[in-house]
Write a structure and sequence with these properties.
Number of helices: 3
Number of strands: 25
Helix content: under 10%
Oligomer: single chain
Distance between the termini: 25 Å
Shape: globular
Order of helices and strands: HHHEEEEEEEEEEEEEEEEEEEEEEEEE
Structural class: mainly beta
Largest sheet: 11 strands, mixed
Length: 223
Amino acid sequence: MENITIENLYDLKETIAADLFTEAEYPWEVLPRIHDFILELGKRLPEEIYEKRGEDIWVAKNAKVAPTACLNGPLIIDEEAEVRHCAFVRGNAIVGKGAVVGNSTELKNVVLFNKVQVPHYNYVGDSVLGFKSHMGAGSITSNVKSDKTLVVVKNGEEKVETGLKKMGAMLGDHVEVGCNSVLNPGTVIGRNSNVYPTSCVRGVIPAGHIFKRPGDVVKKDDI
């Protein structure tokens, strides 16, 4: 399972939340700690760059936030990010530098690294999205199993018990997810991988691969 560690998925220089990850091995381990981390980090953010809006919400002064967006804390919106019309942030969210949260997109208990794009009708819950990752229109993370049991990350015959009832997807840096795809609970997608539109993804997709359909995952170098 070495390929799904934080070290192999993310460039921690590309998030204001780098300290959140330093004592963890796998990215989902940070999910229960996002709430408290935001509260502590928010207190230390420089007032010349960030303004506090309401309770436990910090927004960079040069970020663009539509007046129709619904923001709930704890929340940090970093510099030059854009939160568009009717976005719904339910709380426990970090929106990275230059990230885009689009119309009718919903965020809950997430870390979006810098330059992430979730620009159209996305649901992202209990997830970590790496630098410059992109979710196409209508693609979502499913974060609870239908039988409500704890999420297990599966990579072939290997399994890792997360201990979490709610876990969406962990996307590495530069991941591209096609429109109207569903990332099932416990999905982990390695750096520089692509997911075809309308896909139903489960388990681990290695770095540098293309997910076409279940059982048809090809290495980019072989194309």
